[in-house]
Amino acid sequence: MNLALFDLDHTLIPLDSDYEWGQFLVRVGAVDPDEFAKRNAAFYAQYEAGTLDPVEYLEFALGTLAQFPRKQLDAWRRQFMEEVILPDIRPAATDLVKQHQRAGDKVAIITATNRFVTEPIAEVFGVETLIAAEPETTAEGEITGKLVGIPTSGPGKVVHTNEWLASQGKSLGSFGRSYFYSDSQNDIPLLSAVTHPVATNPNALLKAHAQAQGWPILTLFDD
After folding, report:
1. Nearest CA to 18 among 49, 32, 39?
2. Rounded to 5 degrees, what are φ and ψ at 67?
3. CA 162 to chain centre
């Protein structure tokens, strides 16, 4: 059995689900449009530049979720999936995931975005294992606004991957081949830890690094 890990945003989908969720909240009138859009755009620019403080951003994102009852959040999430995510699911991406599944590989999506936003997206891809930023919830399922554990970004992806595999008595070295598909230089730590890193729809910084390292470059979509 081999291991296939996938980043989500700009890797399996041609957008940033976290950013788009924020823009969706603005459109439905859930948050102050000027202030929220300004902060959301600033955080996204920091992410693209590789300067984002993941804890600061997650506290902002999860704090926004905590303002609303879970029933309302779930209704908005269904609308978000229908209007934003599903129209942008690409066959090339779903085919790549299915290729690994048909080969019998252990498959997981690991994303810096929180589980609330990404769980239904992983379901669309038919991936049962989702490693994502974990929002703290009450016994009733309400989101408190706090993060559980460390962020699933940068070196944190390596930590979370190792913990997940260790819980099953495995490690990265347990697999003949371990793949990780990602678009961003933020994921170089995990890309460097697997045997088969694949720069997927890479941004300029990751593309340059991949070329220098001799890593394969895969284009699933151009937008």
Report:
1. 39
2. -75, -15
3. 17
CA distance 148 to 151: 8
pTM: 0.93
List pLDDT tens digits, range 4-29.
Answer: 999 999 999 999 999 899 889 999 99
CA-to-CA dists, residue 200 to 53, 70, 214, angstroms: 23, 34, 14
**CB contact set of 213 (below 8 Å; sequence gap of 6+):** 197
Residue with tokens 């991936």: 127
How far is C-alpha 66 from the geometric centre of its chain's CA atoms? 20
What is each CA distance from 30 to 69, 73, 76, 126, 189, in whole angstroms?
A: 12, 10, 10, 30, 36
Phi, psi of 130, rounded to the nearest 5 degrees: -120, 120
Q: Which residues are catalytically annotated?
A: 7, 9
**What would the pLDDT profile of 88-116 be if each residue is shown by its tens digit?**
999 999 999 999 999 999 999 999 999 99
Q: Which helix (H) or strand (E) holds 143?
A: strand 143-148
Closest alpha carbon to 13 in 74, 96, 76, 75: 96
Express each pLDDT in 65-94 by its tens digit.
Answer: 999 999 999 999 999 999 999 999 999 999
